[in-house]
Fold this protein.
Amino acid sequence: MGSLTAEQVNEQAPMVASQVLNDSVIAAARCEQVTQGFGQRAAADSTAQLAQLAQLHAAGALTDEEFAAQKANIIGGR
């Protein structure tokens, strides 16, 4: 592969910088999508856990104190 002259580098620099910026924007968007996916999944899991917990409490399988403690754990993400 041949060497580039300073003039060629100067001519290509804006295109290269534009491509790097474009790639960075695309990568950031993908990261945001992944992060949102995890958040949505966690919210769905928490909702399902709270529903199951409420059923157990309504059935008398959990005391008020147990229900409150487990609910706090789910909501707090512990």
Remarks:
- The chain is about 85% helix and 0% strand.
- Residues 45-78 form one domain.
